[in-house]
């Protein structure tokens, strides 16, 4: 299917907020208002598409969330759609989305985590390029303001109407490995996150490779295999993966679980085909967990997949995406290059068009 590249954002354009999975708008009105104010301060208009109507059944919930997505795509005054947050049930929407409507009204679509399901569905069924990037409540609602790195890259990728490639992806010197206090049921929503030095990029395998960027939250990527929403072949792909929180939101996703996911991807054949792998910074991963995950990745490729170290298969860890902040804006299914010798991860195409 031919790729549909969405039009670049410009000052004065309208951005819609939607909540296709978790429904937190009424629970977190102050952080949501901060996210709105942040994007308005950049010169954009904001429209929140959200119904507070209670839904007693799964069917009602699906209908309501699909209607909100369709409203955002149908409205010709809306130039971009950004998800407020991920969640747990975006996969329910896939059989019920109007892909013809989406294809006929292409526009920027941004989100991460559970939104992985929507990225795969929209890309596979319409050809529209979407963006794995920051959500409103997790990245644009920080007190007293969002991390500038996240804002700068969001603007760089989505407003570039020059036809120039996105280029080498930057790396932030600082990060926060935790979410804001308001996500944990604390009534104080005006506390600043703690920041630490970002872990350095880490090349687990050397090499240079070019391919099309595809991936998402690792659990969602595993669950999508075997569906008609996943790519039929990964032979031309650079895979990107990141982990969500643990079963308890205040705990990291265990390395043991990540190991299981990687083995599942190996058994599905994906890891035998991809040209490279990029791993996002892990939520609440300390140095020990980073080392542990690095060892797991190396052993899975050495033992389970059995790909030779002589092969050009670059593997890079600790890139600025995932369930931590700051967050790069990654155009999915764009041509990218991994180059260990240059210590570079570059997007070789523009994310949007004039």
From TrEMBL:
Entry's Gene Ontology molecular function annotations: carboxypeptidase activity
Occurrences of domain LD-carboxypeptidase N-terminal (ranges): 15-133
Residue ranges of domain LD-carboxypeptidase C-terminal in the record: 210-338
Keyword Hydrolase: yes
Keywords: Hydrolase
InterPro entries according to UniProt: Carboxypeptidase_A_C_sf, Class_I_gatase-like, LdcA_N, Peptidase_S66_N, Peptidase_S66C, S66_fam
One Pfam family recorded for the sequence: Peptidase_S66
Membrane in keyword set: no
Top-level taxonomic group: Eukaryota
PANTHER family registered for this protein in UniProt: LD-CARBOXYPEPTIDASE C-TERMINAL DOMAIN-CONTAINING PROTEIN, MURAMOYLTETRAPEPTIDE CARBOXYPEPTIDASE
Family: Belongs to the peptidase S66 family.
Protein name, entry field: Peptidase S66, LD-carboxypeptidase A
């Amino acid at each position: 299917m031919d790729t549909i590249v969405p039009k670049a954002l410009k000052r004065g354009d309208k951005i819609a907020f939607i909540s296709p999975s978790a429904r937190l708008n009424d629970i977190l009105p102050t952080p949501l208002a901060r996210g709105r104010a942040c994007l308005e301060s950049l010169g954009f208009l904001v429209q929140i598409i959200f119904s507070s109507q209670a839904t007693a059944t799964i069917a009602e919930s699906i209908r309501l969330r699909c209607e909100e997505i369709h409203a955002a795509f149908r409205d010709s005054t809306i130039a971009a759609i950004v998800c407020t947050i991920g969640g747990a049930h975006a996969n329910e929407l896939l059989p019920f989305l109007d892909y013809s409507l989406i294809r006929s009204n292409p526009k920027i679509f941004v989100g991460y985590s559970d939104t992985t399901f929507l990225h795969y569905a929209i890309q596979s069924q319409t050809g529209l390029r979407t963006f794995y990037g920051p959500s409103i409540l997790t990245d644009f609602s920080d007190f007293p303001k969002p991390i500038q790195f996240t804002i700068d890259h969001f603007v760089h990728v989505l407003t570039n109407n020059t036809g120039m490639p996105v280029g080498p992806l930057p790396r932030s010197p600082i990060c926060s490995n935790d979410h804001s206090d308001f996500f944990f049921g604390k009534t104080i929503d005006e506390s600043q996150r703690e920041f630490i030095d970002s872990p350095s990029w880490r090349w687990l395998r050397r090499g240079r490779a070019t391919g099309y960027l595809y991936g998402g939250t690792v659990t969602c990527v595993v669950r999508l295999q075997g569906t008609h929403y996943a790519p039929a072949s990964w032979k031309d792909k650079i895979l990107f993966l990141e982990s969500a929180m643990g079963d308890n939101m205040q705990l990291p996703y265990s390395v043991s679980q990540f190991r299981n996911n990687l083995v599942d991807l190996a058994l599905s054949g994906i890891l035998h085909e991809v040209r490279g792998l990029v791993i996002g910074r892990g939520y609440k991963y300390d140095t020990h967990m980073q080392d542990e995950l690095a060892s797991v990745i190396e052993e899975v490729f050495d033992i389970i997949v059995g790909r030779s170290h002589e092969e050009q298969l670059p593997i890079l860890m600790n890139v600025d995406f995932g369930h931590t902040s700051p967050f790069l804006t990654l155009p999915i299914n764009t041509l990218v290059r991994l180059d260990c010798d240059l210590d570079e991860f570059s997007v070789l195409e523009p994310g949007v068009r004039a």
